[in-house]
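haha ok so turns out i had the wrong file open the whole time. this is the CORRECT one, sorry everyone. sequence first:
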Amino acid sequence: MINETEHRSNLTTNLSNYTHINEDIKTAYNILVIFLIIFIMTSMGANICWKQIWMHVRKPFGPIIGLVCQFLMMPLVGFIYNKIFKFKPEMAAGLLIMSCCPGGVVSNIFSYYLNGDVSLSVTMTTVSTILALGMMPLNVWIYSIRTESSTLIIPYKSIALSLILIISPVLVGMAIRWKAPKVSVYVTKGGSALGFIFLIIVTMLKFVMFKNWLHQISWKFIIASTCMPITGILLGYFIALICRRSNAVCKTIAIESGIQNAAVAFSVIILSFDIRKYFTILFIPWFYGLSQSVICALLCLFHHILIKYCKRVQSTQEAVEIVRKKEDIVMKPSSTIPT
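then structure:
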């Protein structure tokens, strides 16, 4: 528990500092966040094909493994890291919300570059986003009463309402894919590109708004934000491997388990909390999303280098085998001609 007097004094200081932020910057920031949510979620929905989803729904073993990792394993991992580092209530709540989030478009992209099962990734993303309406508030409630975040009033109903507002653009994107599949390709590419641009702008504005408080990001949080995605990826791959899934499915489940939808966490936090009081909670989805993206980018780079190396070794072995066969033909004694 936090000392009440100290907490109130810190809160008063934070509020007074927050009021000095330029109102135009705050307005621009809020508007850009709304557009960021719309573009990213619509582009994700426009990339979802019902036929691919139905194929995995008929044989749901892979998606079930992924959903167990997503909604049972990852919240537990977040809880464990909160217990290890004993974060302040707002940081603990933010990290818990992040660990309870569904997957997102980023996991689909990395599954593609890692030669995973993209259709399974899209299916898991879709199903986990829908199930998050119930599972996310439930997990946040279960684990928040067991961590320091229990001292922070978490609006569980607002989280569910926020998820409904976030999923709405996904449904719009899915409708576009259904009615106009040719247009959906441009919606996916354009929405993802615009979302990425808005994400960069929002990140820059966040630095401008909160640059005086960046020192509040402790080394404990940096370690937790870096280790949590790695833990999720390793455990997800290990669980899928134990269940005797193919290598492509194992990689997909690993990525879906380790990568959380930072856009959902960011949106839930914006729509559910008074940022004037708990502005540091905004650092969680931003830094966590950055960490998991860097980790997966390094995995893709390593995977690409490994594939090139294996192909080079294989081509060398084939060349050596061809040379040996030619040498065998040349060195083979000619058959004797009967007199």
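The chain has a mean pLDDT of 76.
again sry for the mixup
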